[in-house]
């Protein structure tokens, strides 16, 4: 996304007199609120979609990483004891592998017929890639059903792969390290307030996340 906001002309966030920008339009008579550069490299739809992705994909996945990660720790006493020594980048990677917030990648559409594992996927067909299946593949991960907070050989795909690798991965990792680490330090007795089987999960087969997470402190 290109923007005209240089340090010199940083947007004040306040609507300047005469500014005509609306929620639907990224063009503006007000230079302070103009989102495009002179080359107009993104269409209106692309710009809206990118803004949506940054705001909502980032928010929802991070919320779910905190929730799913905490449940994984609170239901595994050995892992919880280990996590109390500190939430490290290795810890966060294992939580991302074990119960990834997006269980599926964003849909793919082959531009031509492709053969995968002996199956022909026709051009234009919808392809759903299961990240969580890959994360629990015993041919790739030793004891994949075990939450191993010291796992170092961990090439998980929770942030995707290739040119569309998650833009916010570094931010999300730091948020999880600080969020979970602070919680366990500040509330050392945190525990589930209901049996694990009574936790309410949201009804999405792509995004795995809780409706609520009742805990006692
Ligand atoms: C735990 C937190 C997060 C997880 C698990 C996650 C996961 C992912 C995954 C799997 C993809 C690639 C989707 C695909 O190729 O099918 C992706 C892309 C993306 N993520 Fe995240 N994300 C997280 C946090 C964030 C945050 C905090 C932001 C923004 C601040 C963000 C912004 C994006 C954007 C913009 C893309 C699209 C990149 C592109 O298409 O080039 N994500 N994310």
Question: Would you spell out the secondary-structure blueprint of this structure?
Answer:
Elements (H helix, E strand, L loop, with lengths): L43 H31 L2 H7 L5 H10 L15 E3 L2 E3 L9 H5 L33 H18 L4 E2 L22 E2 L1
Antiparallel strand pairs: 1-2, 3-4
Helix pairs in contact: 1-3, 1-5, 3-5
This protein binds protoporphyrin IX containing FE.
- Major sheet: 2 strands, antiparallel
Q: Would you state the CATH class of the domain at 45-102 and 132-216?
A: Mainly Alpha
CATH homologous superfamily of the domain at 45-102 and 132-216 - what is it?
Cytochrome P450
Biggest sheet strand line-up: 1-2
CA gyration radius, whole angstroms: 21 Å
Overall number of strands: 4
Overall shape? globular
Bound molecules: protoporphyrin IX containing FE
Q: What is the CATH architecture term of the domain at 45-102 and 132-216? A: Orthogonal Bundle
Number of helices: 5
**Distance between the amino and carboxyl termini:** 43 Å
